[in-house]
Here is the input.
Amino acid sequence: MDDSRPPQIFDPNVLVDEYGDYLFRCALVYVRDRSLAEDLVQETFLAALQCHRTFAGGSSLRTWLLGILKHKAVDHFRRIRRQTQLNGNGETWIEEASDDTARTGPSDADSVSRARRSDPQVKIDQKAFWGALAKGLAELSPRTATAFELREIEQLSAKEVCQRMQISESNLWVMLHRARLHLRECLELNGLR
Amino acid sequence: MVPELLGRFVHCEKAIFLISKSLDKKLSLYERTILRWHVSVCKTCSEYQQELELIHGLLRVHHPGVEEPGDANLSARLSDEARQRIKKLLAERLKKR
Here is the structure.
């Protein structure tokens, strides 16, 4: 049996008919532009064909495809950021640039209070939330973003993330700390309510 | 009096680190204690803790694509043109193997 051929469920017609609209709706949460969303969906399916072997069949195909889409969305924002980098110094990731913030933490008590609503039953604007999250992730170094994605979005345990990334627990604490610090700011600015 | 004194020995820098760590691992008794004391005297860090926990909680529950009532996206679909284009591209990619 030819192992390089994807299994039947990866038939293009089936994939697009079954999951195309769903992935398209998800993509629109990250990017507002419809043709951009179409591109993301296309890239997701292509990547799925490419690495069909990593689909274990454990989680649902839908969940697996969504995972690929999320990575593609973050890649997209990273690409945009690179294009707008004018200083030619190579990339500076947010956590390097804002080391002062990491040392002092949230300094503006007022802005923190403004952002925080006392109502515990927070209803969020999904688009604003996920769009801001993807943008924020793209501003972090790829490794830090990966650590956050694996832990918080794919919900792996801390141990699993360490194994996957071949890092120590203390490395992980630092990366997640920096990621959360930055993302909290992004979400605040973009109106988490 | 005592919590206030101890709060000064734990800077916000350390406190916010512990707040983040507490989301991934049960803190030691020592860490839990100094964090609790700091948060009880520091409003900024107390709010930071609430926000991190909020974001952490939201990510567990919400996923893009889960339709909310009144979501304008409910009817969003791939255009027929895009659908055909993508199918064609995928089929071509498969043939190349």
Q: What stands out?
A: Chain A is about 65% helix and 0% strand. Residues 98-121 of chain A have pLDDT under 50 and may be disordered. Chain A touches chain B through 60 residues (CB under 8 Å). The two ends of chain A are 53 Å apart (CA to CA).
